[in-house]
Design goal:
Layout lengths: L64 E8 L4 H4 L2 E6 L6 E5 L3 E7 L2 E8 L3 E6 L3 E4 L4 E9 L1
Parallel strand pairs: 1-8
Antiparallel strand pairs: 1-4, 2-3, 2-5, 5-7, 6-8
């Protein structure tokens, strides 16, 4: 036989229909419980995981609000005459804060009405949410009280 050349393959390809295709292509790395036994899946490879290898936690809604009380005093009388701040709210007990120097305190409040009273012989100016108001769950309010001679 003349003029005939045999082709010898240098690469052998497998028929993909014969291979097991367990790649878990429907896995979602952004959901709780995305598990797969396949190497390189969401839980197997932290570098490819949108949560960087940390399982996503369920989100819980806030059930309380916060009120930041800021007290500012730049006069010597504050050390001698403390200022007492009373917060009456939906909490079972009222919150009582005492300041002799400048500072702040974060108070957690149950949703509902609240009122702030200041007991002091030193005068004061107030700004923000410092009087009677209502706080909602997840809300963050600020009251600034400045001691004035």
């Amino acid at each position: 036989m003349t003029g005939f050349t045999a082709n010898i393959p240098t690469v052998v390809l497998a028929d993909s229909r014969l291979l097991k295709q367990d790649t878990n292509q429907s896995a979602s790395c952004d959901t709780v419980g995305a598990n797969s036994p396949v190497s390189g899946s969401c839980n197997q490879s932290a570098a490819n995981n949108v949560n960087n290898g940390v399982p996503k936690t369920a989100v819980t809604s806030e059930t309380t609000g916060t009120l930041l009380i800021r007290f500012v005093c730049n006069i010597p009388a504050c050390a001698t005459f403390p200022s007492v701040i009373i917060i009456q709210s939906a909490n079972p007990q009222r919150d009582i804060l005492t300041f002799t120097v400048s500072g702040s305190q974060l108070v957690t409040l149950d949703p509902g009405p609240f009122a702030i009273a200041v007991i002091s012989v030193i005068g004061q100016d107030r700004s923000g949410d410092c009087d009677i108001g209502t706080i909602k769950a997840g809300q963050h309010l600020t009251c600034t009280i400045i001691a004035a001679p």
